[in-house]
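User: Just a sanity check before I run the rest of the batch. Below are the structure tokens for the first item. I only need the designed sequence back.
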């Protein structure tokens, strides 16, 4: 049995969806285990582009089970829209998708709360959430008294529970300044009726996924765990408070899925050959100049979920070394190498200067990270296209040198290189992770 995790090592948007979709045919089950519809995974298949937010990226393959585990927060309206969109394009989602009864629901009041609180500043800056209700939902999960889980949608006392929570939320949000129009969207009878519809539609897919995954592990199945966001956005280990509300680094896999670490064999840490960040928060290698604009333009760096332009900068080996260690990365997958084909000179951050001292670790305080001045090593750019490369030896020697330097600075071998959005634009190097043989046609 192989448990393989795909974890973003930066601030999200590392093109994990492409990788999961590519690897999925080798696995029996693909598992999403944290985050929610704040994620946006783009998968290109047969010239068609699919944008997935909640549904695991293995959904396009026949013969693969896709699981949404307890650690995910699910907006029922969003998942149903996503299911309908895929079904309309011929993907039989209900046959392929299982949803944990333990997962929590992002309710309409969570979205209102997220929008209201997003206008507040922490340390002089807004977190800039995706407004998808993620933080408020996780807060209610931990608070317990006002949480609604997937299993509640099909429970006998559903309406009673929904009405009670909706009433309490309505009073509370009125105090936070919600408008009458906003409050009408969470009117108790209205939400109870919606939950009835959601329950009926989702019921065939709702199950005890924890039991299912543990059975699968013991039966020798191969599992692929699909991380959302990136490790620098991890609630406990990221650039707090400018983070998301779940454990998006490798440490979150077991807690979110219910599958203990003993079943996990490899961890693929995914990073771009440069850095991006959406929303607020410190970003030491950010380029607020023409070079940053050029990376954004070449890399089409606009958010899948919100369409916001991403902040762009050079590769930060200090931050990625930290998240690779934290996530237990056994291999790196270096994405968007093609974007760097157009620069005379490339830089990698190898240390920070903080208040006059040289440091080689990411400080725990966002305030300190903000004061970090990157110390760079500079490399000559290869300046020729690599998007047709099918093996590492097709790369110009300067591109190979760039890859070797990332391995040296992060301390993890690069097993996979991506040179474009298509599945075929992926190179497995001599250091590729051990993967099961394909079980279904890719
Ligand atoms: P939230 O997850 O919507 O609460 O947003 C918290 C922070 O995480 C914001 O800076 C978002 O821009 C960022 N974020 C959340 N999800 C993603 C993602 O999938 N990719 C990149 N950034 C994300």
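Assistant: Here's the designed sequence for the first item:
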């Amino acid at each position: 049995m192989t448990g393989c995790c795909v974890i973003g090592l930066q601030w999200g948007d590392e093109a994990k969806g492409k990788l999961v979709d590519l690897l999925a045919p080798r696995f029996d089950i693909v598992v999403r285990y944290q985050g929610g519809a704040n994620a946006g995974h783009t998968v290109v298949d047969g010239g068609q582009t699919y944008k997935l937010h909640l549904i695991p990226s293995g959904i396009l393959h026949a013969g693969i089970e896709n699981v949404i585990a307890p650690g995910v927060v699910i907006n029922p309206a969003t998942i149903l829209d996503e299911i309908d969109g895929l079904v309309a394009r011929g993907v039989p989602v209900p046959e392929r998708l299982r949803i944990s009864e333990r997962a929590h629901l992002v309710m309409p009041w969570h979205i209102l709360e997220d929008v209201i609180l997003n206008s507040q500043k922490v340390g002089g800056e807004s977190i800039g959430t995706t407004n998808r209700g993620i933080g408020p939902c996780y807060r209610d999960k931990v608070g317990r008294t006002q949480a609604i889980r997937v299993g509640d949608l099909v429970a006998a006392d559903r309406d009673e529970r929904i009405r009670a929570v909706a009433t309490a939320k309505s009073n509370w949000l009125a105090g936070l300044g919600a408008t009458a129009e906003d409050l009408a969207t969470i009117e108790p009878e209205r939400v109870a009726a919606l939950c009835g519809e959601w329950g009926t539609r989702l019921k065939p897919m709702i199950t005890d996924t924890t039991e299912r995954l543990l059975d699968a592990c013991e039966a020798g199945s191969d599992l692929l765990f699909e991380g959302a966001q990136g490790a620098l956005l991890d609630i406990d280990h990221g650039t707090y408070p400018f983070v998301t509300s779940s454990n998006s680094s490798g440490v979150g896999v077991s807690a979110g899925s219910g599958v203990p670490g003993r079943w996990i064999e490899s961890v693929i840490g995914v990073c771009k050959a440069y850095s991006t960040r959406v929303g607020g928060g410190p970003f030491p290698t950010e380029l607020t100049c023409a070079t940053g604009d050029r990376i954004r333009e070449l890399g089409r760096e606009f958010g899948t979920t919100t369409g916001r332009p991403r902040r762009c900068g050079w590769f930060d080996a200090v931050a990625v070394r930290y998240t690779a260690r934290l996530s237990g990365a056994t291999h790196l997958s270096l994405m968007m190498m093609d974007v760097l084909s157009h620069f005379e000179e490339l830089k990698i951050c190898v240390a920070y200067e903080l208040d006059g001292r040289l440091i080689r670790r990411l400080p725990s305080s966002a305030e300190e990270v903000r004061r970090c001045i990157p110390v760079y090593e500079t490399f000559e750019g290869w300046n020729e296209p690599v998007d047709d490369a099918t093996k590492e030896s097709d790369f110009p020697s300067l591109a190979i040198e760039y890859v070797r330097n990332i391995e040296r600075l992060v301390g993890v071998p690069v097993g996979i290189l991506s040179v474009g959005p298509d599945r075929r634009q992926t190179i497995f190097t001599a250091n590729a992770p051990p993967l099961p043989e394909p079980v279904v046609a890719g």
